[in-house]
Structures are given as structure tokens and as C-alpha cells.
Amino acid sequence: VQLQASGGGLAQAGGSLRLSCAASGSIFSISRMGWYRQAPGKQRELVATISNGGSTDYADAVKGRFTISRDNARNTVYLQMNVLKPEDTAVYYCRADKLPLAMGPVYWGRGTLVTVSS
What we know:
The chain contains no helices and eleven strands. By secondary structure, it is mostly beta strands.
């Protein structure tokens, strides 16, 4: 599975960005997809995930500001980020989990940098 992320860049605080991640290759049995981020000097953390049925989960820090969505026909997951804050600055990584969850293969895309200026 290859994951191609795009959409990162520079935004001002209060602004918006939209990330996209397209999956290709051996995409059968991909179940959950999601976004994680890693800020300088910090560990990678969950941002949001979405199941192939549309169930979502968000980190508390982004609830109400970020929205994850998925287009199963295009094998693409999106992250709409609104009301950005400087603390959202990080490298954002797309992830895909194959069944069975917690035991199946996990795939990571190359990160895309999001920088939020104050």
C-alpha cells in the first residue's frame, strides 16, 4: 500500500488547510485510515481516524476544529483543519490499517508539513 499525502503548507492562526491522502496498491482489506502528527521534539500522536463505515475518532485537542472524511470510491481520506493554532504545527502523517485491526499490517505515508504562524 502506498499513501500519498498532500495539502500541507503555511497558514496563519485562525486559518484553514485541507490535507488529502490517497491510497494505492494493495488496498484490499484496508479498514481504518487516519492522520497522526509529530511536532518537533514530541512523539507522534493521533489526530483523527475514520473507519470504512464512517465512524470517527478525534484527539481532544482538535475536536470541533478538524474534520476527517473519507471517499471510499477514491481510496482517499481528508482532514479539514479549521481555526488553526500555532500548536497545530507539525508533520502530519497518513496511516492505513488493514484487517484485523490491531493485528493487521499498518502503513504510513510520508509526512506533510503544516506550519501555523501566530
